[in-house]
C-alpha cells in the first residue's frame, strides 16, 4: 500500500507543471443542473491555475453523463491515458448502484473490482489516483438508487486498502443535511437540483471538499471565499432554532 498524499504534495512543491484529469458521470460532467453556473471542475480549474498560480498546469474534464465505472474502464485510453495525467480524480457510483436501469444490476463486489482496477491503471501509467464518493440521493424520488450509501462505502474501503486519496462527498452532503427541520427528511435540498444532481451550490461544496482533501486550503483564496459563501447561502436553518 502507498500513501499518495505526500507524493502529491512533493509534486506540487516541485513547481513542475501537472496535468489533472477529472472523470466520472453526469455529476462531474456538470451540465444542465448548475443552470449556467460553473461546475466543481470549473471551480477547481480557477483555484489551481488562478489562486494557486499554477498557470502551466492543465485541468481536463472527461466525464460523460450516464457513465459507470465499467464503462470508464472500457474507454480508459480516451477518458484517462490519452492525456498522460499526473493526477486522476474519479467520482462514480450514482449510476452503478441503480437496481432499475441495469440488467443485470452491478453488485458491490464487481463495483469494488472496477474501482480497484481504475486505481491500478492510473498508477501503472505513473499517475496519482483520487477517489470521490458520490453525493447523497433523494431516495423518495429515486428509490432505485437505494444502494448509494453502500457503493460510497465501497469507495471508502478501496481507498483505505489501496492508500488512495479520498474525498468523501457523500459524508459532506450528509453532514450538510443534518438538523434541517421537519419535512426536509434530512436531505441536502439546498445542494440538489433534482433527486441526485447537485445544483450550483452543490458544486461549490464538491469543489471545497476536494480542495480541502488535496491541500488547496489557503484562507486567502478568493475562490474558496466565494465557494464557502455559496454553500452558506444554500444551508437550511437549523431545527429547532437556536
Strand content: 5-15%
Q: What value does the average pLDDT take?
A: 92
Broad structural category: alpha/beta
Tell me roughly what share of residues is in helical segments.
40-55%
Radius of gyration: 17 Å
Order of helices and strands: HEHHEHHEHEHEHHH
The count of helical stretches stands at: 10
The span between the termini is: 46 Å
Tell me how many strands there are.
Answer: 5
Physical arrangement of strands within the biggest beta sheet:
2-1-3-4-5
Poorly predicted runs are none
What report would you give on this structure?
- The protein contains 10 helices and 5 strands.
- About 45% of the residues lie in helices and about 10% in strands.
- It has about 240 residues and is of the alpha/beta class.
- Helix 3 packs across helix 9 (about 200-215).
- The chain is globular.
- It has helices spanning about 5-15, 25-30, 40-50, 70-75, 75-80, 110-125, 150-160, 170-175, 200-215, 220-235, and strands at about 20-25, 60, 85-90, 130, 165.
- A 5-stranded parallel beta sheet has the order 2-1-3-4-5, sandwiched between helices.
- The model has no long low-confidence stretch (mean pLDDT about 90).
